[in-house]
Amino acid sequence: MKNSLLIILSSSLITFPVFADIVDQNILEQNDSSQLKSVSQLSSLKNILKRQTEQAPYVHDLKNAYQVRTLFVESQALPIVDIQLTFNAGSARDESIGKGLFGIANMAANLMTEGTENYSAAQIANQFEQLGAQFSVKAYRDMFVVRLRVMSDPQKLESAINLMLEVLNHATFTPSSLNLVFSNTQVGQRQLQENPNRLIDIKLYRTLYGTHPYAQPITGTNASIRKITPALLKQFREQLLVAQNMNIAITGQLNTQQASDLSIKIMQSLPQGHPAPALPLPEPQRGFNIQHIPYQSTQAYVTMGHLGISRNDPDQLALELANQMLGGSGFNSLLMKELRVKRGFTYGAYSAFSLTQTDGIFSLNYSTKQDQLMESIQVAHKTLINFVKQPIDKKQLEETRSGMLRAFPMSFSSNANINAQLGSIGFYGLPADYLSKYPEQLRKLTALDVQQAVRKHIYPENLTVIVASEKLEKEKLLQNLKDNLSPPQPVQIDPETIHPLTP
């Protein structure tokens, strides 16, 4: 019995050598060192893994005669290929097809798989399923994104790509499919009235952007989508879903030549067309703009913000770090500490920069009880003012930087994540080595760099404040915000009231 117990103990230690750094060294020394030699050798993996944690995948920037940017990451771990076609054809391009046609990009994305000249919607779905492929089309504010995931087997890969190109080039956008989307949109609009955060989001974009292409919701409105016809959807495809208005991202079990051949096939199979023109710059607003959305609830929902920066702004990384400190890092952020930890006003308070082709939005948001609304807004605004005016806390800066570096590998933790990163890098014209240089650039940022970026791009005196609540005292709130900006006045003391100190 004793010998069998020793055999079991010894075998269990050898079975899991990768956990050697947590095994009691005294136990190891009592066993045959020849059997456990691999354990001591593998303990060095701990240091190797630390060095490789931040190592981003190598990105190939494949050149071609069509001048269509193609980024590729080889990944031999799984027999899978991910492809993303990113067109400069998001909802910001809706009115390039016709005045007031908000929602046409989203409509085209929703109807793309509803049938072509050769296949019905059911046949398209069945063929992708038989190939073990996943296919999706989605419209965003900047981008129109087509994604395909399929096995790397050459026959299945070729069949899936052919079917993807069939859908892109020959979707029919039938009136019956349009009517179905109209019905679904009307249901969505009714549900929207029950979602205060979506109502605020729409109001914020319309208020900050005015007549700019970013102003309207991606889904459009009930009135605008009624104007959309199959002919207009085909015009959208012919004008914007073209080779010269896209970039390609490929990740998976291919070599560079195979990836290059695949990308060229896609380019050749699409109309060449022309790139979309640059978007105009939106006009920033000055002062405070308070908007109220009547909403029956014991909770009040608050968002305040102003126009921010584009994705290509040189201060983008410094502001990403600053935002994590202000309201993007959970309980360690300033907004969370002031609004939740110290005062219990809310469960969560957050800030964010939306990064787009032209100036995006900087905003902070939270919800609170109706009777705490006015005070909570004053505290949130004061926290923002102090963050801009006071020196950056170096200890918090280092803690936040460390957290971002630890989280960084999640951005390329899977083939799908890698491919999404490649699509964004290609769309916004970032360098191919952006991911590999990210940790180094993040470490180089000083407290002064962050402070200068904050004071340059965050304006507590120019805020649009949108509140969804039962009631709101707008004049009182405006005065509170102005009072926050005023420096405290020194206390005036009457000399006659001062008494000499006794010895």
From TrEMBL:
InterPro entries: Metalloenz_LuxS/M16 (IPR011249), MPP/UQCRC_Complex (IPR050361), Pept_M16_N (IPR011765), Peptidase_M16_C (IPR007863). Residues 77-221 form the Peptidase M16 N-terminal domain. Residues 227-403 form the Peptidase M16 C-terminal domain. It holds the Pfam family Peptidase_M16. GO terms for molecular function: metal ion binding. Keywords: Signal. Residues 483-503 are annotated as: Disordered. Residues 1-20 form the signal peptide. This is Insulinase family protein.
